Amino acid sequence: MQIDWIMGLIGGGIIGLAAATYLLVNGRIMGASGILGGLVDGSGKSTARERGFFLAGVFLMPALLTVFTGKIDTHVTTNILVLVAAGLLVGVGTRLANGCTSGHGVCGISRFNLRGIVATVFYILAGGLTVVFFRHLLGVI
Amino acid sequence: MKRDLFALLAGALFGAGLFISGMTETDKVQGWLDVFGQWDPTLAFVMGGAIIPMFFAWRYTERHRPVLGGSFPARPDPKLGRNLILGSTLFGMGWGLAGLCPGPAVASLSYGGWPVWIFMAAMLTGMIATPRVRESLDRMVPAE
Protein backbone atom coordinates (compact mmCIF):
# COMPACT_ATOMS: atom_id res chain seq x y z
CA MET A 1 0.00 0.00 0.00
CA GLN A 2 2.57 2.62 1.11
CA ILE A 3 4.87 1.64 -1.76
CA ASP A 4 1.98 2.52 -4.12
CA TRP A 5 1.79 5.96 -2.57
CA ILE A 6 5.55 6.49 -3.01
CA MET A 7 5.39 5.31 -6.64
CA GLY A 8 2.42 7.64 -7.07
CA LEU A 9 4.43 10.58 -5.79
CA ILE A 10 7.44 9.72 -8.00
CA GLY A 11 5.29 9.07 -11.08
CA GLY A 12 3.34 12.24 -10.33
CA GLY A 13 6.60 14.20 -10.18
CA ILE A 14 7.52 12.86 -13.62
CA ILE A 15 4.09 13.89 -14.94
CA GLY A 16 4.77 17.37 -13.53
CA LEU A 17 8.17 17.45 -15.26
CA ALA A 18 6.48 16.45 -18.52
CA ALA A 19 3.97 19.29 -18.16
CA ALA A 20 6.77 21.73 -17.22
CA THR A 21 8.81 20.70 -20.29
CA TYR A 22 5.85 21.18 -22.63
CA LEU A 23 5.08 24.55 -21.04
CA LEU A 24 8.56 26.03 -20.67
CA VAL A 25 10.05 24.73 -23.94
CA ASN A 26 7.08 24.61 -26.33
CA GLY A 27 4.98 27.21 -24.55
CA ARG A 28 1.94 24.94 -24.41
CA ILE A 29 -0.38 23.51 -21.80
CA MET A 30 -0.07 19.75 -21.45
CA GLY A 31 -3.72 18.76 -21.52
CA ALA A 32 -4.33 15.30 -22.97
CA SER A 33 -7.94 15.94 -24.03
CA GLY A 34 -7.08 19.24 -25.72
CA ILE A 35 -4.09 17.82 -27.59
CA LEU A 36 -6.10 14.81 -28.76
CA GLY A 37 -9.35 16.70 -29.37
CA GLY A 38 -7.71 19.41 -31.45
CA LEU A 39 -6.25 16.70 -33.64
CA VAL A 40 -9.52 14.86 -34.32
CA ASP A 41 -11.94 17.80 -34.62
CA GLY A 42 -9.65 19.78 -36.89
CA SER A 43 -9.31 22.80 -34.58
CA GLY A 44 -5.59 22.13 -34.05
CA LYS A 45 -4.60 21.68 -37.69
CA SER A 46 -1.72 24.17 -37.59
CA THR A 47 -0.09 22.34 -34.65
CA ALA A 48 -1.00 18.81 -35.74
CA ARG A 49 2.61 17.58 -35.98
CA GLU A 50 3.54 18.74 -32.49
CA ARG A 51 0.38 17.10 -31.12
CA GLY A 52 1.15 13.89 -33.00
CA PHE A 53 4.68 13.70 -31.60
CA PHE A 54 3.42 14.30 -28.06
CA LEU A 55 0.83 11.52 -28.36
CA ALA A 56 3.41 9.19 -29.91
CA GLY A 57 5.53 9.64 -26.77
CA VAL A 58 2.56 8.94 -24.49
CA PHE A 59 1.80 5.77 -26.42
CA LEU A 60 5.33 4.46 -26.96
CA MET A 61 6.93 5.00 -23.54
CA PRO A 62 4.52 2.78 -21.56
CA ALA A 63 4.73 0.19 -24.38
CA LEU A 64 8.52 0.08 -23.88
CA LEU A 65 8.20 0.02 -20.10
CA THR A 66 5.83 -2.96 -20.18
CA VAL A 67 8.26 -4.87 -22.36
CA PHE A 68 11.17 -4.15 -20.01
CA THR A 69 9.35 -4.59 -16.69
CA GLY A 70 6.93 -7.30 -17.79
CA LYS A 71 4.34 -5.45 -15.75
CA ILE A 72 0.80 -5.11 -17.10
CA ASP A 73 -1.18 -3.31 -14.49
CA THR A 74 -4.61 -2.56 -15.77
CA HIS A 75 -8.04 -4.09 -15.33
CA VAL A 76 -10.26 -2.31 -17.80
CA THR A 77 -13.83 -3.58 -17.78
CA THR A 78 -14.83 -5.88 -20.67
CA ASN A 79 -18.45 -4.68 -20.58
CA ILE A 80 -18.82 -3.08 -24.02
CA LEU A 81 -21.85 -1.00 -23.02
CA VAL A 82 -19.93 0.51 -20.09
CA LEU A 83 -16.87 1.16 -22.28
CA VAL A 84 -18.86 2.93 -25.00
CA ALA A 85 -20.87 5.01 -22.52
CA ALA A 86 -17.73 5.92 -20.57
CA GLY A 87 -15.80 6.83 -23.72
CA LEU A 88 -18.58 9.05 -25.07
CA LEU A 89 -18.99 10.80 -21.71
CA VAL A 90 -15.25 11.41 -21.37
CA GLY A 91 -14.97 12.62 -24.98
CA VAL A 92 -17.90 15.05 -24.88
CA GLY A 93 -17.31 16.09 -21.27
CA THR A 94 -13.63 16.97 -21.60
CA ARG A 95 -14.12 18.91 -24.83
CA LEU A 96 -17.14 20.77 -23.48
CA ALA A 97 -15.25 21.66 -20.30
CA ASN A 98 -12.09 22.32 -22.31
CA GLY A 99 -9.88 20.10 -20.15
CA CYS A 100 -9.42 16.90 -18.19
CA THR A 101 -7.28 15.60 -15.34
CA SER A 102 -4.04 16.84 -16.89
CA GLY A 103 -5.17 20.22 -18.28
CA HIS A 104 -7.59 21.35 -15.59
CA GLY A 105 -6.11 19.20 -12.83
CA VAL A 106 -2.32 19.32 -13.05
CA CYS A 107 -1.84 22.50 -15.12
CA GLY A 108 -4.85 24.47 -13.83
CA ILE A 109 -4.57 23.85 -10.10
CA SER A 110 -0.81 24.56 -10.06
CA ARG A 111 -1.59 28.00 -11.56
CA PHE A 112 -4.33 28.59 -8.93
CA ASN A 113 -6.72 28.85 -11.84
CA LEU A 114 -10.32 29.00 -10.62
CA ARG A 115 -11.67 27.15 -13.69
CA GLY A 116 -9.23 24.28 -13.15
CA ILE A 117 -10.07 24.01 -9.46
CA VAL A 118 -13.85 24.09 -10.04
CA ALA A 119 -13.62 21.57 -12.92
CA THR A 120 -11.58 19.22 -10.72
CA VAL A 121 -14.11 19.44 -7.88
CA PHE A 122 -16.96 18.63 -10.29
CA TYR A 123 -15.31 15.69 -12.07
CA ILE A 124 -14.17 14.12 -8.82
CA LEU A 125 -17.64 14.52 -7.25
CA ALA A 126 -19.35 13.17 -10.38
CA GLY A 127 -16.85 10.29 -10.59
CA GLY A 128 -17.30 9.42 -6.92
CA LEU A 129 -21.09 9.41 -7.14
CA THR A 130 -20.94 7.34 -10.35
CA VAL A 131 -18.72 4.69 -8.74
CA VAL A 132 -20.92 4.54 -5.64
CA PHE A 133 -24.09 4.26 -7.73
CA PHE A 134 -22.92 1.76 -10.33
CA ARG A 135 -20.73 -0.32 -8.00
CA HIS A 136 -22.57 -0.40 -4.69
CA LEU A 137 -26.19 0.08 -5.78
CA LEU A 138 -26.33 -1.55 -9.21
CA GLY A 139 -23.23 -3.75 -9.00
CA VAL A 140 -22.32 -3.34 -12.69
CA ILE A 141 -18.76 -2.01 -12.36
CA MET B 1 11.81 20.08 -35.71
CA LYS B 2 12.90 21.02 -32.19
CA ARG B 3 9.27 21.52 -31.20
CA ASP B 4 8.46 18.00 -32.37
CA LEU B 5 11.41 16.55 -30.48
CA PHE B 6 10.46 18.23 -27.21
CA ALA B 7 6.80 17.31 -27.73
CA LEU B 8 7.92 13.70 -28.07
CA LEU B 9 10.06 14.02 -24.93
CA ALA B 10 7.22 15.59 -22.93
CA GLY B 11 4.85 12.88 -24.14
CA ALA B 12 7.33 10.14 -23.23
CA LEU B 13 7.78 11.61 -19.74
CA PHE B 14 4.01 11.89 -19.34
CA GLY B 15 3.59 8.25 -20.40
CA ALA B 16 6.37 7.13 -18.04
CA GLY B 17 4.84 9.08 -15.15
CA LEU B 18 1.39 7.62 -15.76
CA PHE B 19 2.83 4.11 -15.94
CA ILE B 20 5.06 4.42 -12.85
CA SER B 21 2.39 6.12 -10.73
CA GLY B 22 -0.11 3.35 -11.51
CA MET B 23 -2.61 5.74 -13.08
CA THR B 24 -3.16 3.45 -16.06
CA GLU B 25 -4.52 0.91 -13.56
CA THR B 26 -8.27 1.43 -13.68
CA ASP B 27 -8.71 -0.30 -10.30
CA LYS B 28 -6.57 2.39 -8.65
CA VAL B 29 -8.53 5.25 -10.22
CA GLN B 30 -11.89 3.72 -9.35
CA GLY B 31 -10.45 2.89 -5.92
CA TRP B 32 -9.75 6.60 -5.36
CA LEU B 33 -13.29 7.53 -6.38
CA ASP B 34 -14.83 4.74 -4.30
CA VAL B 35 -15.00 6.42 -0.90
CA PHE B 36 -17.45 3.80 0.40
CA GLY B 37 -15.29 0.85 -0.63
CA GLN B 38 -11.58 0.09 -0.21
CA TRP B 39 -10.50 3.71 -0.59
CA ASP B 40 -7.16 4.07 -2.41
CA PRO B 41 -5.50 7.47 -1.87
CA THR B 42 -2.74 6.95 -4.52
CA LEU B 43 -4.27 9.44 -6.98
CA ALA B 44 -3.91 12.25 -4.45
CA PHE B 45 -0.16 11.55 -4.23
CA VAL B 46 0.11 11.57 -8.03
CA MET B 47 -1.74 14.90 -8.28
CA GLY B 48 0.36 16.39 -5.50
CA GLY B 49 3.58 15.13 -7.07
CA ALA B 50 2.64 16.61 -10.45
CA ILE B 51 1.48 19.96 -9.12
CA ILE B 52 4.78 20.72 -7.32
CA PRO B 53 7.03 21.01 -10.44
CA MET B 54 4.25 22.80 -12.29
CA PHE B 55 3.88 25.37 -9.52
CA PHE B 56 7.52 26.38 -10.07
CA ALA B 57 7.11 26.21 -13.86
CA TRP B 58 4.25 28.73 -13.73
CA ARG B 59 6.35 31.00 -11.51
CA TYR B 60 9.11 30.88 -14.14
CA THR B 61 6.68 31.92 -16.90
CA GLU B 62 6.04 35.25 -15.16
CA ARG B 63 9.44 36.66 -16.15
CA HIS B 64 10.44 34.62 -19.19
CA ARG B 65 9.41 33.46 -22.64
CA PRO B 66 9.16 29.87 -23.94
CA VAL B 67 12.58 28.44 -24.84
CA LEU B 68 11.51 27.82 -28.45
CA GLY B 69 9.87 31.22 -28.88
CA GLY B 70 6.30 32.46 -28.92
CA SER B 71 4.52 33.36 -25.73
CA PHE B 72 3.02 31.51 -22.79
CA PRO B 73 -0.72 30.83 -22.73
CA ALA B 74 -2.62 33.75 -21.25
CA ARG B 75 -4.53 33.24 -18.05
CA PRO B 76 -8.02 32.14 -19.12
CA ASP B 77 -11.14 34.15 -18.39
CA PRO B 78 -12.08 33.13 -14.83
CA LYS B 79 -15.74 32.79 -15.86
CA LEU B 80 -17.15 29.39 -14.87
CA GLY B 81 -20.23 28.91 -17.03
CA ARG B 82 -22.42 26.06 -18.20
CA ASN B 83 -19.90 24.27 -20.42
CA LEU B 84 -17.28 23.96 -17.67
CA ILE B 85 -19.69 22.64 -15.04
CA LEU B 86 -21.74 20.35 -17.29
CA GLY B 87 -18.67 19.13 -19.19
CA SER B 88 -16.72 18.32 -16.03
CA THR B 89 -19.72 16.48 -14.59
CA LEU B 90 -20.13 14.34 -17.73
CA PHE B 91 -16.39 13.70 -17.83
CA GLY B 92 -16.40 12.63 -14.18
CA MET B 93 -19.23 10.17 -14.84
CA GLY B 94 -17.32 8.53 -17.69
CA TRP B 95 -14.11 8.58 -15.66
CA GLY B 96 -15.85 6.78 -12.80
CA LEU B 97 -17.53 4.23 -15.08
CA ALA B 98 -14.35 2.97 -16.74
CA GLY B 99 -11.54 4.37 -14.57
CA LEU B 100 -9.97 5.91 -17.67
CA CYS B 101 -9.31 9.50 -18.68
CA PRO B 102 -7.70 10.67 -21.95
CA GLY B 103 -3.99 10.49 -20.92
CA PRO B 104 -4.05 7.02 -19.35
CA ALA B 105 -6.22 5.73 -22.21
CA VAL B 106 -3.50 6.62 -24.73
CA ALA B 107 -0.77 5.37 -22.37
CA SER B 108 -2.36 1.92 -21.94
CA LEU B 109 -3.36 1.37 -25.59
CA SER B 110 -0.38 -0.91 -26.16
CA TYR B 111 -1.05 -3.30 -23.29
CA GLY B 112 -4.61 -2.69 -22.05
CA GLY B 113 -6.15 -4.93 -24.72
CA TRP B 114 -9.25 -4.39 -26.87
CA PRO B 115 -11.35 -2.71 -24.15
CA VAL B 116 -9.04 0.33 -24.20
CA TRP B 117 -9.44 0.56 -28.00
CA ILE B 118 -13.24 0.46 -27.66
CA PHE B 119 -13.07 3.19 -25.02
CA MET B 120 -10.72 5.20 -27.24
CA ALA B 121 -12.99 4.90 -30.30
CA ALA B 122 -16.00 6.06 -28.27
CA MET B 123 -14.00 8.91 -26.71
CA LEU B 124 -12.78 10.20 -30.10
CA THR B 125 -16.34 9.95 -31.44
CA GLY B 126 -17.50 12.05 -28.48
CA MET B 127 -14.75 14.59 -29.12
CA ILE B 128 -15.66 14.90 -32.80
CA ALA B 129 -19.35 15.28 -31.92
CA THR B 130 -18.78 17.94 -29.24
CA PRO B 131 -19.05 21.05 -31.48
CA ARG B 132 -22.52 19.84 -32.52
CA VAL B 133 -23.43 19.00 -28.91
CA ARG B 134 -22.38 22.51 -27.91
CA GLU B 135 -24.57 24.06 -30.64
CA SER B 136 -27.64 22.08 -29.56
CA LEU B 137 -27.00 23.07 -25.95
CA ASP B 138 -26.75 26.73 -26.98
CA ARG B 139 -30.20 26.47 -28.54
CA MET B 140 -31.68 24.98 -25.35
CA VAL B 141 -29.87 26.90 -22.61
CA PRO B 142 -27.76 30.03 -23.08
CA ALA B 143 -24.10 29.40 -22.22
CA GLU B 144 -23.75 32.08 -19.55
Written description of the protein model:
Chain A: It is found in: Cell inner membrane. Chain A: Keywords: Cell inner membrane, Cell membrane, Membrane, Transmembrane, Transmembrane helix, Transport. Chain A: Pfam families: Sulf_transp (PF04143). Chain A: Its main location: membrane. Chain A: One of its GO terms (cellular component) is plasma membrane. The complex is a heterodimer of chains A (141) and B (144). Chain A has 141 residues and is an all-alpha fold. Helices cover 74% and strands 0% of the residues of chain A. Chain A has six helices and no strands. Chain A has helices spanning 2-24, 32-40, 48-69, 80-97, 101-109, 114-137. The longest helix of chain A is centred in the C-terminal third of the chain and has 24 residues, at 114-137. Chain A is globular, with a radius of gyration of 17 Å. Chain B has 144 residues and is mainly α. Chain B has one domain (2-140). Helix content of chain B is 69%, strand content 0%. Chain B is built from six helices and no strands. Chain B has helices spanning 2-21, 26-33, 42-61, 81-98, 102-107, 114-140. In chain B, helix 2 (26-33) crosses helix 4 (81-98). Chain B is globular. The mean pLDDT of chain B is 95. At the A-B interface, helix 1, helix 2, helix 3, helix 4 and helix 5 of A face helix 1, helix 2, helix 3, helix 4 and helix 5 of B.
* Assembly state of the chains shown: heterodimer
Beta strands of chain B, count: 0
Global structural class of chain A = mainly alpha
User: Cα distance, first to last residue of chain A?
Assistant: 23 Å
Q: Domains counted in the coordinates of chain B: how many? A: 1
**What share of residues are in beta strands of chain A?**
under 5%
* Structural class category of chain B: mainly alpha
The biggest sheet of chain A amounts to: none
Order of helices and strands of chain A: HHHHHH
> From N to C, what is the helix and strand string of chain B?
HHHHHH
Tell me what portion of residues of chain B adopts beta-strand conformation: under 5%
- Helix count from the secondary structure assignment of chain B: 6
Family (chain A): Belongs to the TsuA/YedE (TC 9.B.102) family.
Keywords (chain A): Cell inner membrane, Cell membrane, Membrane, Transmembrane, Transmembrane helix, Transport
Membrane topology (chain A): Multi-pass membrane protein
Transmembrane segments (chain A): 6-25, 52-70, 76-97, 117-138
